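Hey, why these numbers?
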Amino acid sequence: MKPELYNDIVKTIRKFRGLSKDCKDVLKEKYSDVSAYTLYSILSLEIQHKMKVNHGKLFGDNKNYYDTYKKAVQNGEPVGILLKMAKDIGVPPALLAKNVLKKHCGQYVSRNEVNELFKDTTLIQDKDLAYEVYLCILYDNVYGSISVAIGFSVGQEYELKVQNYLTERNLAFRNEEHLRSRGYDKTPDFKLEVPIAVNGCVINWIESKARFGNKEIHQKYIKEQFLSYWNRFGPGLVIYWFGFLDNLSEPNEKRFVIMDHFPENITYMDPTCIKPTTL
């Protein structure tokens, strides 16, 4: 994706006031020629970045959203109080709901207990608050148990897609689970038993990312994952299925190839061409 288009999408997201679920619809209408998956991924990355930068400001000790919620209940406001608050404040509903739930439970309830209530709202004794928290989780497409489950499912789907591609092309490989069983702590999704070449670059491993690749997330992955794979297995392939910035990779990058699809033009190694060494 051209940086100019990406910056325009980010600008639209930052100017939007409301829930991310509604912002997603605005993006789909404005950028109809861009994949909905790509737009959603950029939206998610931008909201996560915003929360990372502004979390202390939005959820500091000087903020008491629980009291605001209780006053709204006492005033007889209709269902959806926390959703409305989240929209007005400009925070993901699930994060606000968890903050209010934590205040409701009090200081003597552990974080793990709060997390259990958040995962299963039927355990919350206050039925009105339970429903409010449930609505926030349901309407939050970035945070919360539902969005986490969806994200995990999508990630698994695209890893399976890579596995099917490898199988169809008769490429022998080991998956992450097998590599971990062999004692590797940081492993790519797939390690090729026999390397291939893509666009003149040797590929020893493949990492599948069911998301958009921007500068920040790519640098994070390089530091936490890709460099370890390169040091251990040599050069590899990173697939950002929902696209990436055109200027993401340096022109002379030799450690990993970046693509948004599984490569079609593959050069296979021919073992018969390798002459045995004479001792």
About this structure: Residues 19 and 87 are 6 Å apart (CA to CA). The mean pLDDT is 91.
